[in-house]
Amino acid sequence: MTTQQTRFTEVSENGHRTREQPVGELVQQASRQLSELVRAEMQLARAEMAQKGRRYGKGGGMFGGAGLFGFLMLQAGVAAAIAGLAVPLPVWAAALIVTGVLGLIAAVLAMTGRQQFKKAAPPSPQQAIANVKADVAEIKGSTHR
Questions:
Q1: From CA 136, how far away is CA 130, in angstroms rounded?
Q2: Distance, CA of 144 to CA of 57 (rounded, Å)
Q3: Residue 3: phi, psi to the nearest 5?
Q4: Cα(75)–Cα(72) distance, rounded to whole angstroms?
Q5: Tell me: the pLDDT tens digits for 22-66?
Q6: What is the DSSP string of 72-116?
């Protein structure tokens, strides 16, 4: 009995034969390329999730700052109300100005934090998922030829 090994001939773009490769070698090469592709996609997903994590962290920090300044605004508002009752105008007017400034700071921090959350959403690696879907479609398309 003789064993016959199936071979495929590589043909370059200009139509010249380059070399013949056994099927086993081609399958091994495809397997190696597929594992390299999966590793690269996993690295992309890891990098994308790290970037989104940083954005969520920044957004959370901004909301924390907004909460702090909102609390200070409430304290200043209480102080303004007390001062307004104690002395007719000058003391409470100053306290209201401070309250307004703190409120403005809280609003700016809240808006900035909201923008950071919007940039980070959704919390899944969208680019990596899209690349994997494209890779699967390409592999399926090339196997049907």
A1: 10
A2: 46
A3: -100, 135
A4: 5
A5: 878 878 888 888 888 888 888 888 888 888 888 888 888 999 999
A6: HHHHHHHHHHHHHHHSSSHHHHHHHHHHHHHHHHHHHHHHHHHHH
Location of structure tokens 């994308």: 48
List Cα–Cα distances, 52 to 56, 71, 91, 131, in angstroms. 6, 28, 46, 18
Token reading at 93? 């007017």
As given in the structure block, the two tokens for residue 116 are: 């950071």
Q: What is the pLDDT of residues 100-139, one digit of tens each?
A: 887 898 899 999 998 888 887 776 777 778 888 888 787 7
Tokens read off for 1: 């009995």
List Cα–Cα distances, 104 to 59, 99, 109, in angstroms: 18, 9, 9
* Structural contact between residues 119 and 55, judged by C-beta atoms closer than 8 angstroms: yes
Average pLDDT over residues 71-97: 76
